[in-house]
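Course assignment 3, question 2. Fill in each field.
Student: A.L.
Task: Predict the tertiary structure for the chain below.
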Amino acid sequence: MIKDENLKEEDLRELDDICDECKEKDESVSQNLILTGFKICKSCRVSKTIFPI
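Answer field:
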């Protein structure tokens, strides 16, 4: 059985609002994680949309 404490700590680490691309802390990271499944901020999302390479 999985301990609830470990599961909660994992969830909190994932929702730390730090972008995987630029490593900046931004509120839009958690919003984009819910919408797209990627931990990126709003500015990185726009730049990836314009320049997908």
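Instructor remarks: The mean pLDDT is 84. The helical segments are 4-14, 28-36, 42-50.
Grade: pending
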